[in-house]
Amino acid sequence: MNAKFLFAAAAIAAAVSGVARADEADASQFAIKFDGQRTRAEVMAEAARVPAARSQEPAGSRVLVAPTSNVSVQAVRAEAAQALRLGKIPSGELSF
């Protein structure tokens, strides 16, 4: 029993020790270094021109307008109830 327990504990410790690894604390790998040649005013002017060239609507988000109908909700419900009574609408285990 003791040997099995020690073997299991050693196996778990070996597996866990390979998972947790630390990296540099200064986060130098995330620093972006660049040398810009443009002035702040040039960048701001370019940024001001961008909205005029782009659509504010996300791609693929255009939705069709819901069709309007002159039929009242009560008339539709009455027709559905009548169709159900006449057996035109399958229900339960007899449905398609």
Describe this structure in words.
By secondary structure, the protein is mostly helical. It is built from three helices and no strands. The protein is flat. It comes from Ramlibacter cellulosilyticus.
How large, in whole angstroms, is the Cα Rg? 34 Å
**Outline type:** flat
Question: Mean pLDDT score, rounded?
Answer: 76
The SSE order reads: HHH
Helix fraction by DSSP (H/I, runs of at least 4): 40-55%
Distance between the termini: 61 Å
Main sheet specs: none
The number of helices is: 3
Strand content: under 5%
Count of DSSP strands = 0
Q: Which tags fit this structure?
A:
single chain; 96 residues; mainly alpha; flat
List the helices and strands and how they pair.
Layout: H1 2-17, H2 40-53, H3 73-85
Summarize the structure.
This protein is 45% helix and 0% strand. The chain has helices spanning 2-17, 40-53, 73-85.
